[in-house]
Specification:
alpha+beta, Beta-Lactamase
Length: about 190
């Protein structure tokens, strides 16, 4: 059984590399592939795809747009995913997927602002219990924010969910790895 799993994994990996090559040439659009049902498998697949989809030679806005789209396609039970970019004074809205959002957030305000200020990932199980939470989408019930640090604060990755307690240590671990890939692009 293990032998067949290895063969299938190599076949899927080969197909992804082929798919990536076609995308880079501009002849083909992205196609969602099945990454499994458990969080570890999904995040490992996201990280693998991100390594080939995101490109240091592309504009950062292009990469952040594709990064938010990739997370939006594969993460379950989310209603908003995107980036806020730090301009030296406050966070301003960057590429995202979801409903229109707050365009500026002061450092220290809301979940994004506190994560930016502390430079630490924040996992909020219930946003209604977070002091100073900024409501951009009334459906959001939980949130995770990962700061992007490169030579100081660059911005944050923000993901909201309409489900209480949606995010946990597994999300934190893999989203910090995802942000590490983005840091190399900044």
């Amino acid at each position: 059984m293990l032998f067949y799993q290895l063969i299938i994994k190599r076949l899927i990996t080969s197909l992804f590399y082929y798919q990536y090559d076609i995308i880079r040439r501009g002849d083909y659009m992205f196609t969602k592939i099945d990454l499994g049902n458990d969080k570890d498998s999904i995040y490992k697949g996201i990280l693998e795809q991100a390594k080939y989809l995101l490109d240091k030679d592309e504009n950062i806005i292009t990469n952040l747009s594709n990064a938010s789209a990739l997370l939006n396609v594969y993460l379950k039970d989310i209603n908003w995913v995107g980036f806020y970019i730090y301009d030296g004074y406050e966070l301003y809205l960057g590429p995202f997927q979801g409903l229109p959002a707050c365009t500026k957030i002061k450092v220290g305000n809301g979940v994004c602002g506190v994560a930016a200020e502390t430079r630490k990932t924040l996992v909020v199980k219930n946003v209604d219990e977070f002091p100073g939470h900024i409501t951009c989408d009334s459906a959001s019930k939980s949130e995770i924010v990962v700061p992007i640090i490169k030579d100081g604060l660059y911005g944050v990755l923000d993901i909201d969910s309409p489900i209480l307690n949606r995010f946990d240590d597994t999300d934190k671990l893999y989203l910090e790895k995802f942000v590490a890939l983005i840091v190399d692009l900044c």
